[in-house]
Sequence to fold (121 residues):
Amino acid sequence: MTDCNAVKASRYKQELLPRIHRCLSRFELVQQLTQSFWKRWNLEYLHILQQRVKWTDKTDPPHIGDLVLVKDANSPPLCWRRGRILSLVFGADGVPLFDEVQVDGSVLKRAVSTLSRLPVN
Fold:
């Protein structure tokens, strides 16, 4: 970074930070940063875990024992639950439609489209 850019960046920080601290309490600032992180995580990373390809292409279906993230539209991302696939319910074409997922000691039946497999290496 050149000296001119460094001066501009430091001046920007000096002007911006007092304004932020005046408007927001520490708690509100942390909440805003958390929401910003989860929004970016949801938009930029989560879709990579659940990529959809054209329906004519075969994809690797979920398997029994896979670790999954159970998405819930009514819960914030911090409250989404992790589970493990116990069984699969296949359709007439042999493609899995529903999974039975063990989550926190209970068994849920969820559509495959509402689950995201977590990469476990």
